[in-house]
UniProtKB/TrEMBL annotation, chain A:
Recorded superkingdom: Archaea
Ranges in coiled-coil conformation: none
InterPro entries listed in its UniProt record: UPF0229
Compositionally biased region (Low complexity): 64-76
Species lineage: Archaea, Methanobacteriati, Methanobacteriota, Stenosarchaea group, Halobacteria
Organism annotation: Natronorubrum texcoconense
Region feature Disordered, mapped onto this chain: 50-98
The protein's name: Uncharacterized protein
UniProtKB/TrEMBL annotation, chain B:
Protein name from the UniProt record: Stage V sporulation protein R
PANTHER family: STAGE V SPORULATION PROTEIN R
Alphabetical list of InterPro entries matching this protein: Spore_V_R, SpoVR-like_C, SpoVR_N
SpoVR protein-like N-terminal domain mapped to chain residues: 18-358
Residues annotated as domain SpoVR-like C-terminal: 560-611
Organism expressing this protein natively: Natronorubrum texcoconense
One Pfam family hit: SpoVR
Amino acid sequence: MGLRDDLERFREVGEQRREDLADFIQYGDLAGGRGSIQIPVKIVSLPEFEYDQRDKGGVGQGEDGTPQPGQPVGQPQPQPGDGDGEDGEPGEEGGEHEYYEMDPEEFAEELDEELGLDLDPKGKTVVEEKEGPFTDMTRTGPNSTLDFERMFKEGLKRKLAMDFDEEFLKELCKVEGIEPREVFEWARGESLPVSMAWVEEAYSNVPDEERGTWASIEEVEANVERESVQQKIRREGIKHVPFRREDERYRHPEIIEEKEKNVVVVNIRDVSGSMREKKRELVERTFTPLDWYLQGKYDNAEFVYIAHDADAWEVERDDFFGIRSGGGTKISSAYELANELLEEYPWSDWNRYVFAAGDSENSSNDTGERVIPMMEQIDANLHAYVETQPSGNAINATHAEELERHFGTDAEDVAVAYVNSKEDVTDAIYEILSTESDDNE
Amino acid sequence: MSKRNSNADRFRKQAIAADLEEPVDEARNLAVKLGLEPYPVKYWIIDYDEMNELIAYGGFQSRYPHWRWGMQYDKQQKQGQYGGGKAFEIVNNDNPAHAFLQESNTLADQKAVITHVEAHSDFFAKNEWFGLFTSGRADEDQVNAAAMLERHARAIDEYMSDPEIDRAEVEKWIDHCLSLEDNIDQHQVFSRRLDVDGPVDDLDDDIAEKLDELGLSDEVKGEVFDEEWLEKLQQSDEAVTFPEEPQKDILSFVREHGKQFDDEAGRAAEMEEWQRDILDMMRAEAYYFAAQKMTKVMNEGWAAYWESTMMTDEGFAGDDEFMNYADHMAKVLASGGLNPYSLGMELWEYVENRTNRRQVLEQLLRVEGVSWRNLMDVVDFEAVLETLEPPEAIASITPETLDRLEEVPEEWVDREALEQAQNGEIDVETYPWKVLTTEGLARRHYSLVKRQHRGFLTRVSQNDLEQIGRYLFDDARYETVEEALADVDFSAGWDRMYDIRESHNDVTFLDEFLTTEFITENNYFTYEHSQATGQFHVASDAAEDVKKKLLLQFTNFGKPTIAVYDGNYNNANELLLGHQYNGVMLDLGQARETLKRIFELWGRPVNLLTIVKDVDEHDIEVAKRRNREPEPEERGKLIRYDGETVTIDDVPWEEVEHLSADDVDYDTKPDEWLA
């Protein structure tokens, strides 16, 4: 019982168990642009008697003025009566959200944690000298950088060195006929860090009736227990650790060279006639998180989108996932264009990722004769091909297979992943991101 | 989950609590002074994680084990983590109410929350729809929702841990019940067991046998209880359909007459004890939360209104905190769409202003020579507003001005408090309201002269004026405007608000107070789906249309009304439900799935009669070419689930005619729409 348990069971709903609910899960679509990412949240809504959304219509609010009747409106806006009232407690703000937003950096961290990745982005050009961690010490500096721990330790050392058993010396002063000088000398003999002035003051503070309490120094030694400084500190606690100006140390940042982490990601997608809606969607589901991930990992991320059928052309991100064309397929056209476009991003300054996706259909011999040589020619941290075949393999769809045969399954800078359903997306992402070799700087 | 009970944690919370003691006490005093009658509120200081947990649990500390809390927690956590969603307050409808303050809130936030909570607590205590769950007895024994939910949590947890009971089955059973959580009769007083009219179970079972047991002689039996009599009795009994009236509380109907479906035996079997018990619990919770769902706009608006009165008008936020507070308020009210806070608050202000305006106008119309025809011309409204301003003596009260309170009417001043103030026992600087009565405060905060409402008085339509004027007797009672205004009841606005918060729910509230002015000012419009274009289009910006659509969203939780029509359908103990069609058809996909869930709770085939709108493919094509909407045809359908397959069959119109309603129409499509 308890929320942790509820959370666990929720994660399993429709997946490991309760298949009866699988149909009621909405994952939402991927969305969001640069700067923020909207991750679809899993929502399970139990079936209920409801109105037909279309027949129901709704109420909207115009931003500037009321729109004209007949004007199309987008997706219905969330309505005030909507949603489960029970979680609509008074005071709770906002309605049903299918997304939560995060920034790419957080996303990359999450993914690293989730998948156990440790992709370490490599800095390329030196852009500036930056302050490193505060590890150097100086004797002056702003208060916030004062190394208090060090100062405390020094102070404690000093206290240990300077403290002595005052009570014992006070008892000594009560010895019959003793002089302050004798007490001082005895103390010196014991290497107690005491001053003559202190002894004189202690001596004069002894009340007359207590003078002669002890017959000799030996008697005091025999009857009064001495206490070491350590014992004393333990008993009294550290009331006064003497802080001295000379113990102050200020931490100072190391100057280190900061290499800017640049990345360029080339996304290539087959938009030919055979790439139907389902395949298109799977590509989007795989590519988008990859983009986010790299965006989160690097200081500066640039994206290049290439669509191709038998020819290739560069497109904007907004259009990238939507395009459909009718033509045949020649994957090498995209790599040729990629090669050309990458000239702007020299390998010495840029990390490069080239991701391509399609249904593995290609014109005959194109893979072996042209694509593979191009992939070998284009310097990149990683080349990846994502095959989407939701309805099983077509006979002539062998691009991925050929790549795998040529580069091997454990190649360091070529990854091939298969995404046949939504469930494969995570594995594919893992496959791709865990492939990158470590030594291609 | 993260119960960090370290001492440091406790001390920190205690320290925060100590700082809040005074605001809590004084907020209560102020709320009472303003005429509110809240349940006592217990405040708890909690940290961010605890707040997330509470929100996931719908505001309570313990709920039965269920994945949906996990879902909400997941959402809440992610929103907080990445979206910066900040939970300000939770308050439970309970007596005493429990409210939770997040420790990281600023003091200004805490004060805002506290004032807001006090108003919610008043609403819980006074609104009659909340009273339905408690049968109107709002004493502590009656309302103890936290204890009820806790009890349910423990009971269900026990069922789940029972080795004899499959945990997954319990969870599924809960889900089946939840599919029907809005299928209750939320307008009825809640009772644990509903008396449902149905066949009297045992009597007819084996009457012959029972007669035997009576040990009557054959002779007597032969005379009185002859074969014919027996046959007749049994026949009439079989023909009986129940319930007599359609019953909206489907949860209770299946509780009383439902069975479970035994998969192994392949037939209905009596429900297990735990199944009935869970049905009862789910139904009780559905009733408990129903009032909240039915009054969301009113309740939030009410809390926002009084929060604002206390924080801003009464300066409950210190000067230094005020900017912070104003910021918070602006954020809450500005979040888009029809948000219940701003919608509710505006409506409450409208209620107040309209009542006050009516008061003033009635008084003015009683001045000799003033009529609804000439009122606007002969009365100097600037001067009227001037007169309506609260006198300086109560508008600004400081220790130095206390003596001036002698000049104002007796009933505005709290004598006792004034004496204490004069002796320096009350901090008048901080709490000037203490020396006034509720009436005095109503005068002090009279709505019509507030800066943002100053135009309201003269914005009355000629039509409204005529309405007021025509039915006014005694229309020459005063000789001058001043005399008339002297008799204005300055508490009228608040009194009306108190009344409305007792008797209304969102539907009646919106119906009565959502005005044309409000709708047009906020650019509201309706949209409808076009069969011809396959998308939604703006349909109308007429106020009555917008209102109609809005009411659709609030009526019956925004859900279609479904009721039990027969528990012995087909004479085979099948369940027959009817969809009370109001011109908007059902989501048939959802309906099919829901029927499957109901089957589990009924154990025998389930049927649903409904009306759908059919549009001919050919008509759509024609419509597309002609750029107009095709005319749909309404048809009766019977959806049936027998445990294996769902079937949807046409039924003759006569069979569904009783479900159709001609007098409601939620369609706001104009005649010439897409042309």
